[in-house]
From TrEMBL:
Protein name: Histidine--tRNA ligase
Domain of life: Bacteria
GO molecular function, one term: histidine-tRNA ligase activity
Domain Aminoacyl-transfer RNA synthetases class-II family profile: 27-332
EC number: 6.1.1.21
Keywords: Aminoacyl-tRNA synthetase, ATP-binding, Cytoplasm, Ligase, Nucleotide-binding, Protein biosynthesis
Length: 435
């Protein structure tokens, strides 16, 4: 019989086990802990939406919409798209679910996103992001709070070394339009020297030329006018309050006058936390203020600001995280011992003590498995010892072992710390741990 071929994973997707999964979960767990400190409510939105949610919010001419979205027609004939980012779906829910009543609304989420682009280090077609948004707040301190949140997240992940917060202002509507006109005039004067992509962007989206990676474009961009000459007094005051908030919170930043967001609804603050440790994929967290987005989805004029960060990229910057700490591995030798260990393991776990069981092999192999797991000790249970009401605890680092009374270990009134003490006390100089 011919061998049935095994389907291969889809290009740009990933399977995670061991360290990669540990890195992923460490990022998520840290994010969940920090967002609670800042009062951000957990929100969930669908993994697919009507295509219009993204085409309206991201813009029909952006690369994401024109080249990268996973869009298909469902059985009902509707065009739906796997979400390429979180903000549009959250903005749609803000309008359709009546979340305006909670404004200003601070929400956070994480999960998978989908973009059809060339996979490379730190970039996948199914990737994962953290996301935080404040909707319905026009105050510059909302921008500052999000930046302080992001800064603390990176600090608690331990990846601030080599990571820099770069900050810019896009001004208010009047500032941005005046700057846009100045950029068009400047780039028109150098049209013949621009790349074809930048020529295409010249009147549709001239700010995106400032993002160009083309070496010829970059030489021209170096002489382009900065937004500072076009900022209104109100826009300057807004940016000043954002930076004052960062100073008060002790968050360092640098100005990047070339940092932009191409879509017209972006206003005021734009920011990126960047690193030189990931090659070309240098941005680990980025965002900005998008005061006009919700209007594009049929909602009322609503100020908002937010950021997103790639979980995979953050995970790549982590030191190798712990895979979890096992206190004990149980090694039953005999049928009665197996039944006993099943109950003992359940009891230990209910007390908050992490443990596992070595089910197969002789005692030597079971102890080898226990040692390889990184556990502190093995609990050896044989039918003969069990008949005497005893178990054996073996310190896997020192090899010391001692007998313990089952009646003491089984007592449900004995808590987490006391159980540790009963099992490990006197072995290798160990003492009981705190709850």
């Amino acid at each position: 019989m011919a061998k049935i071929p095994t389907p291969r994973p889809i290009r740009g997707t990933q399977d995670m086990l061991g360290e990669s999964a540990d890195r992923f979960m460490h990022v998520v767990e840290t994010f969940e802990r920090v967002r609670k400190l800042y009062g951000f409510r957990r929100v969930e939105v669908p993994v697919f939406e009507a295509t219009a949610v993204f085409s309206r919010s991201l813009g029909e001419t952006t690369d994401v919409v024109s080249k990268e979205m996973y869009t298909f027609e469902d059985r009902g004939g509707d065009s739906v798209t796997l979400r390429p980012e979180f903000t549009a779906g959250i903005a749609r829910a803000y309008v359709t679910e009546g979340w305006q009543q909670y404004a200003p609304l601070k929400v956070a989420t994480h999960g998978p996103l989908f973009r059809y682009e060339r996979p490379q280090k730190g970039r996948y077609r199914q990737f994962h992001q953290l996301d935080a948004e404040i909707i319905g707040a026009s105050e510059p301190l909302a921008d500052a709070e999000l930046l302080v949140f992001a800064d603390q997240l990176l600090k608690e992940l331990g990846i601030v070394e080599g990571v820099t917060l770069t900050l810019n202002t896009l001004g208010d509507y009047q500032s941005r339009e005046a700057w846009r006109s100045a950029l068009v005039a400047y780039f028109e004067g150098h049209r013949d020297q621009l790349s074809e992509e930048s020529k295409d962007r010249l009147h549709r989206n001239p700010l995106r030329i400032l993002d160009s990676k083309d070496p010829g474009d970059q030489a021209i961009v170096a002489g382009a006018p900065d937004i500072d000459a076009y900022l209104t007094d109100e826009a300057q005051a807004f940016f000043g309050k954002v930076t004052d908030g960062l100073k008060a919170a002790g968050v360092a930043w640098t100005r990047n006058a070339r940092l932009v967001r191409g879509l017209d609804y972006y206003r005021h603050t734009a920011f990126e936390f960047v690193t030189d440790r990931l090659g070309a994929q240098g941005t680990v967290l980025g965002g900005g203020r998008y005061d006009g987005l919700i209007e594009t989805l049929g909602g009322p004029s609503t100020p908002a600001v937010g950021w997103a960060a790639g979980i995979e990229r953050l995970g790549m910057l982590l030191d190798a995280p712990s895979s979890g700490h096992l206190a004990f591995v149980l090694a039953p030798m005999g049928e009665q011992a197996e039944r006993y260990c099943t109950g003992l393991m359940a009891s230990l776990r209910r007390k908050g003590i992490p443990c596992d069981m070595a089910y197969r092999g002789n005692l030597k192999k079971r102890l080898q498995r226990a040692d390889a797991s990184g556990a502190e000790a093995a609990i050896i249970v044989g039918d003969d010892e069990l008949a005497l009401g005893e178990i054996v605890v073996r310190d896997l680092k020192t090899g010391e072992q001692a007998k313990r009374k089952t009646s003491e270990i089984e007592d449900p009134r004995v808590g987490h710390s006391a159980t540790y003490g009963l099992l490990l006390g006197g072995l290798g100089g160990r003492v009981s741990v705190s709850d």
